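User: Quick one: structure for sequence A, then sequence B.

Assistant: Sequence A:
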Amino acid sequence: MTSSRPAIRFQAAQHELVQTEGFQTLEAYGLYLIHARAYAEAAELAAGGAALDLGCNTGYGTAVLGTRAARVVGVDVSARAIAAARQRYAAAHVTFEEVDGLRLPFPEASFDLVTSFQVIEHVADYGPYLTEIRRVLKPGGAALFSTPNASLRLDPGMPPWNPFHVREFTAGDLRDLLSRYFAAVAVRGLFAQPELYALESTRLAKARAAARRRPRWLVALRGLAARRVPFGLLQTVVNWERAWRSGRSAPLGPAELARFSLADLFYSDADLDQALDLLAIARA
């Protein structure tokens, strides 16, 4: 959800479909688990209620919410993502809708729970995005936001090295922003058992080090390229490069995937600067 229709069309056209299988590196699998862990946490709050998954992508997390909620709606700006979600996860109580990113097509106070995971870092205009979430949330309901932790990813003053991220947040930044729209906000950090934590933190350190070496004009050019080259082509190149760097072309096998699971990830209120990811719980 952004402030202009051209930006929304760009997001829809360039939308990456989340990988949920066929992982070729442990880093890719670990990142999927990090994202999936937020949905497992949210499902505990969804029991018996109505839930909205804003920015649902292929619906893998919407389906997790559907294991506990009485009704779940997944919405996304990407028609391609919604088509994939409907094909794989649609059910009598789990539905999907394409939205334009400006206004949610639901009456006020429609949902007990709203999740918007790995979305807020892509948003250019927070007002419409957060106001709409608050509008459709029932009194006493909860809105959950997950987002990368800028404290672990970026040097002070460093712009996001992901060209599709408008802004990345520290725990304090995220709390301050959401407190303008919600009565109560708590921010927690996602951590992992040592091997998985080291895997992800090392990936982030390498990306941060590479970003330090890029001149500013190259960062700007990279962002421009990301906005002009079809995302499908970019993703094909990135996947090929990851496979080449890992020295493999086949997906990870069952034994490799068994090294990590959702049980290896947990949330904590302490040491938020070192968290792999942030989870904000906002109450209307």
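Sequence B:
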Amino acid sequence: MNVKAISGIPENLTLDHARDWALARVSKKRADHVAGVHKVGRELAEMAELDSESRFMVELACLLHDACKEYKDTQLVALAEEHGMHLTELEKANGHLLHGPVGAFVARQDLGLTNETVLRAISEHTLGNCPMSDISKIVFLADCLDETRPRDYTKPIWQGLLGKGEKKKRSGDDKRKPAAEDRPQVNIDNAMLVALDSSLAYVIETRRAIHPRTVDVRNYFLGIVRASEK
């Protein structure tokens, strides 16, 4: 991919450069997660039949999404406020929720990345947003579907995406490229709803704070799915 063709992405910001920059900032365990998210994001972008530019943006956002994940909560709060975010008391007390937006700020500052679609995908990968681009949705789902996640968490999301056939028809499971009519039909919005339901259930079960945006985003996708079923 010639990144010169994509507005807001510096020519030198190749996927290799993004990978090296991001992985230098995280632990080995986190680096493995980033590699897994990148792999799934690339697969989902192909399954969703995104064009080549959009696929590049998915891969770039996947590689950069957790660059600030291991910052301390206090550092995330300070950086968010430094970049003009107006934080709620919940966000100040749970700074880890800010690693997406802060990651977008840092990528803009350090890498010269100004493509708003990619920056939003980085920013929105934890809490989501209303609405979200297909690129943001795929990065969000890739983060949920990394193979290091528990099987009982990822399986319902794959089923929401592909139907009851789950992962059997995934293009990445067969080295032969399937014909267009044989490729699995993906329901990204339904998968988002399943992922958000699962995330909320986990937060409740572990007695963690729920960010109000997560509820709003879940209800937003519930509305989309219900409308599509009528």
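The chain is about 60% helix and 0% strand. The radius of gyration is 17 Å.

User: Thanks, that's what I needed.
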